[in-house]
Structures
1.
Amino acid sequence: MSTSPSTPEVEVRRSRRRRRTVSAYRDGERIVVLIPATMSKRDEDTWVADMVARIQRQERRKLRSDDDLVARATKLSDHYFGGLAVPASVRWVTNQNARWGSCTPSDRTIRLSDRLQHMPGWVVDYVLVHELAHLLEAGHTPQFWAWVDRYPRAEKAKGYLEGYSAAARLEPPPGVDEA
């Protein structure tokens, strides 16, 4: 299917096992729409347009503003740190390709990679908690990790990010030396 700047690439997959249901998901830059093999071309066109619009609406809702990020950080600080971690600013950035987030304790600024915007909220929350903890303890000391571990999904989020990084080949798997 042809694309324009505002129209994503769409792949339609017909399935003999699928009887009535239609579903869609994002696969990188492409939207994959799954339909029954017996569906007419006219019904396919209608369903594809509907499912692409649905995916795009979901993605627009997922995008978060810097203001949303500040509010989220404040809520997390209040809940997990008793309001002790107070950043001067929290914002999305596009120049972090090797990190998920960063914090400069001296000026109390937190930056999150915009690559996180399409990840589950609990993963974004973990990265925020991690960076907020740097406002309380600058280094990755045992005290720092004790602050981070107040977030109940910390281990799960770390695993998610490690798996994502390995799948995207952002870093080599543990034990593999880079050539």
Note: Residues 64 and 117 are 7 Å apart (CA to CA).
2.
Amino acid sequence: MATTPIITIKGLSVSYERKRVLTNIYLNIEKALIYGVIGPNGAGKSTLFKAILGLIDTDSGAIHIKGQSIKDLRKQVVYVPQKNDVDWQFPATVYDIVLMGRYPHKKVLEQINAQDREIADQALQEMGILPLKNRQIGELSGGQQQRVFLARALCQQADIFLLDEPFVGIDITTEQTIIATLKKLAQQGKTLLVVHHDLSTVEQYFDKVILLNQRLIICDDTDKAFTPENIAKAYGGQLPILHKTGMIEK
């Protein structure tokens, strides 16, 4: 029996400065699965996330989360941006950043309390960075920084996670920690969309794949969607480069 999608996207089109970035996207995102969002540079992957979050204007289409607008369910959706979008010199400690995950649960002027701090400590512990809680974020390694932002996401206790290239610039140990955490979250009923560029790990990491190149190529179970034919449709002329770099073996 088909389940009700947790996110529905109907006819989404987005343009930047009159250049179309996404065209007529239809997606039904199911609960408790990890989706890999795959496609070449400029395919519209980050744009898709920003549209779901209501951060950009769209040309057309409708996006609903649990049948409602993102404005009504913002605290149930957490976003982990690309590392390049973060100001790592911002004068904040690891603990400051992780506690930001509690802000969506707070009313205006409501203070962080002991329960919030306990939730933050648990998130730090889960990501293995509790001893770093008083460090400034700019002092950390790339892997440690990514763990901080995933800890912030855990602290929000959201139902839907949007992660934009969380595995870029990190060590293999952190990558294994993160994917283990994502799989645990899916087992707990969370839904995860992950922009990912390393095609060699797609089959290991994701339950379903969304292949994009401004248009939707396919969204299906990984073994059905991640085929040479569909990859060729998404990457086109970039495919020989991917073979040469070893990012794909098919």
Note: DSSP finds nine helices and nine strands in the chain.
